[in-house]
Design a protein that fits this description.
CATH topology: Rossmann fold
Number of strands: 10
Structural class: alpha/beta
Radius of gyration: 21 Å
Number of helices: 10
Shape: globular
Order of helices and strands: EEHEHEHEHEHEHEHHHEEH
CATH architecture: 3-Layer(aba) Sandwich
CATH superfamily: NAD(P)-binding Rossmann-like Domain
Strand content: 5-15%
Length: 382
């Protein structure tokens, strides 16, 4: 049976330990801001070790790269010949679709005939990316987005800033007013290991964007997804969830801040959110699954400082070892479109295959507590 949440009057508002939440506007909550420490630069010895490690990895990567060129990436490619038209007549919403994994996912689903809504923070960059996608599809001989072929292949750009609950609400209101259906929601956008910053609503940036922004977005669009059933929700997490932990006493990293740990925490939150949402959606014909894309060459790591002397070696290693965005996007495309996962929900995937999770990512009590506290933080539960 679907989970029936008690009414606001039947349940107390969960307390967020270490965080003071105050109503600042209808439906919005703010956290009292405070300063938090940030890690300093790497010591020279650590830089030397990193340089040696990168050199060894680069040298060993040459042979690996050669083998990879012959063997191939081993990831399903879902946007070719026999799959053409697989997503015809379906509307897909992708957050962060103007670059990296999101752009590659959008391109693949367009080739499958989907109508793609790009939810992006920078509208100008999103429009530029949309123009490039149209040209690429036209040059490849496919349907041009916006052509007179029903709704298939159409590309729509909408402004969405996941660091602002106000923006998320405005975006969802626009979608609900203008879109008659939503077949797939792909929570793809993210921020990676940034310096200590806060969102517009006072949340630590990585937790706020990667988890809370998508939490609110998904909840506000659930009605449309249910009305469009069978429909799917796809959540992009990371293997780095393994190094994270949900500290309910300091969710906002007010006491201390480690950018790597906080990223891992947000990715663990993605998985716990997915599993709890799957439980609540039982019987609705709406499925939700979570994935890791692997290590991909994107601009997600723009906040990471790489010493100048090490940078050429790092670039070589990334070229040899990291996936391209097209390769990294295949699991997102698979979960969004493949008949093989029809009816599958609450699972964790990598390289288009189901994978095992660590016990901490399957803790139902933690998942429920995180859900309840997230409802308070984003203002769903008054």
């Amino acid at each position: 049976m679907p989970h029936a949440a008690p009414s606001d009057g039947d349940r107390p508002r969960p307390r967020v330990p270490g965080v003071q939440v105050t109503a600042s506007a209808p439906g919005l909550w703010r956290l009292r801001k405070s300063r938090a420490g940030a890690g300093g630069p790497l010591a020279p010895a650590a830089m030397a070790v990193a340089a040696v490690a990168a050199l060894l990895a680069a040298l060993s990567g040459v042979l690996w790269l050669a083998a990879r060129r012959f063997v191939g990436p081993g990831v399903q490619q879902l946007h070719g010949g026999g799959d053409s038209g697989l997503m015809h007549g379906k509307t897909v919403l992708i957050t962060g679709a103007n670059s990296g994994l999101g752009r590659a996912t959008a391109a693949a689903l367009l080739r499958l005939g989907a109508r793609v809504i790009m939810g992006c923070r920078d509208r100008a960059r999103a429009e530029e990316a949309a123009g490039q996608l149209r040209r690429e599809l036209r040059q490849a001989g496919g349907r041009e987005p916006g052509s007179d072929v029903g709704a298939a292949g159409e590309l729509v750009v909408r402004e969405l800033d996941l660091a602002s609950l106000r923006s998320v609400r405005a975006f969802c209101q626009e979608v609900l007013q203008e879109e008659p259906r939503l077949d797939v929601l792909i929570n793809n956008a993210g921020i990676f290991q940034c310096p200590y910053m806060k969102t517009e609503d006072g949340f630590e940036m990585q937790f706020g964007v990667n988890h809370l922004g998508h939490f609110l977005l998904t909840n506000l669009l659930l009605g449309l997804l249910k009305n469009s059933a069978p429909s799917r929700i796809v959540v992009v997490s990371s293997k780095l969830y393994k190094y994270g932990d949900i500290n309910f006493e300091d969710l906002n990293s007010e006491q201390s801040y480690n950018k790597s740990f906080c990223y891992s925490r947000s990715k663990l939150a993605n998985i716990l959110f997915t599993r709890e949402l799957a439980r609540r959606l039982e019987g609705t014909n709406v499925t939700v699954n979570v994935l890791h894309p692997g290590i991909v060459r994107t601009n997600l790591g723009r906040h990471i400082h790489i010493p100048l002397l090490v940078r050429p070696l790092f670039n070589l290693v990334s070229w040899a070892f990291f996936k391209t965005p097209v390769e990294g996007a295949q699991t997102s495309v698979y979960l969004a479109s493949s008949p093989e996962v029809e009816g599958v929900s609450g699972k964790y995937f990598g390289d288009c295959k189901e994978e095992e999770l660590l016990p901490k990512a399957m803790d139902e009590s933690v998942a429920r507590k995180l859900w309840d506290i997230s409802e308070v933080m984003v203002g769903i539960l008054k």
